[in-house]
Amino acid sequence: MQSIKSLFINPTRFFENHPPEHLRRSFWIIAATLAGAGLLLAVISYLNIAAIHAQYTGKFSVEDLPSPWQRLLFPVIWLFIVTLNSIFRFLTTRVLGDTADFATIAHICLHSAAPLMLAGFLIGVWTAIFPIGPNEVFTRGGFALVAFLLMFIYEGWICIAGLRVYLQQNTGRAILTWLAPFAGWCGCVAVPIAILYIALQL
């Protein structure tokens, strides 16, 4: 609990006290926590399935709605995101001439994603207990998006602290490395769309 408090309040001190060699231990702790969060989300969604279906009466059939047990994929999705973010940031550090290994970058990304994971879990619980109907998508969905964006900035604060501690990057280089996944994710979407568009014009 003290480590979690340190991560969220003073990430610089956290990374100084938790070197990359702790990656495997941290991975299993976070993976187990995510698995528990996914199970809890699935159970809450299952128990409130009637209310969730009621929100979509006349809009979607029960068969069209996702199964509450799909929430069990919560840890898989987040670990996949962390892995890709680690790859994007690792490649960026190589381009910038830094010598950090992949384990170090993964260690930073795994811990810096904690605020986003927490936000994703809380939003999941909120929407499971108070389902968003078709008429509330823009209002409540917008609020959830703002909360998620704030946690994204929080994630950046933690990530930049880790980069400065382990790689001795200055603030500008650390910000550039932190934002690398944003460009990478956009590229993963934009490039296939551009190729498809060009192909349709031929």
Overview of the molecule:
The protein is 78% helix and 0% strand. The chain has 202 residues and is mainly α. Helix 8 (137-167) crosses helix 9. The protein starts with a helix and ends with a helix. The mean pLDDT is 82.
Secondary structure elements and pairings:
Layout: H1 2-9, H2 11-17, H3 23-47, H4 49-54, H5 74-95, H6 102-112, H7 114-129, H8 137-167, H9 171-201
Helix pairs in contact: 1-2, 2-8, 3-5, 3-6, 3-7, 5-6, 5-9, 6-8, 7-8, 8-9
List keywords for this structure.
single chain; elongated; mainly alpha; 78% helix; 202 residues
What's the gist of this structure?
The chain is mostly helical. The protein has helices at residues 2-9, 11-17, 23-47, 49-54, 74-95, 102-112, 114-129, 137-167, 171-201.
